[in-house]
Amino acid sequence: ESNRKMVHPDLPYNSKAPLYVIFLALQDVTENMGPTSFLLRTHTTKANVVFNSGDADEKEQLLLKSDCRLSTLKKGDAVLFDARLLHCGNANNE
């Protein structure tokens, strides 16, 4: 078991995508396993400025209003994402 992780990008912000990451499911990934949550369209300059501004209220609003997708996957599924995208691992309850 593990707790939910902090929301983060994998790399410091860069105006050009320096790296893409791929998750390949080697088994079915269920909600109890703590799959990654992806905050769509947070790889942008604007989202980066808000996320790193130090303004807790602005950051909270960014996180609350972001379109979030949970990566529950079937064995063999893959997720490809920009390393600048905000995401986090969820609590593993198994």
Account of the protein in words:
This protein is of the alpha+beta class. It is 18% helix and 21% strand. It has 2 helices and 5 strands; from the N terminus they run E-E-H-H-E-E-E. It has helices at residues 45-51, 56-65; strands spanning 20-24, 36-39, 68-70, 78-82, 87-89. The strands form 2 sheets. The chain has a 3-stranded antiparallel sheet with strand order 3-2-5, with no helix packed on it. It has a two-stranded antiparallel sheet with strand order 1-4. The chain is globular and about 35 Å long. 13% of the residues are buried. The mean pLDDT is 95.
List the defining traits of the structure above.
alpha+beta; 18% helix; two-stranded antiparallel ribbon; 94 residues; 5 strands
Q: What class, by secondary structure content?
A: alpha+beta
Low-confidence stretches: none
* Residue fraction in strands: 15-25%
The dominant shape is globular
Overall pLDDT = 95
H-E order: EEHHEEE
Alpha-carbon Rg, integer: 14 Å
Question: Largest sheet, if any?
Answer: 3 strands, antiparallel
Strand count: 5
The DSSP helix count reads 2
Indicate the percent of residues in helices. Answer: 10-25%
Lateral strand order in the biggest sheet:
3-2-5
Determine the N-to-C terminus distance. Answer: 6 Å
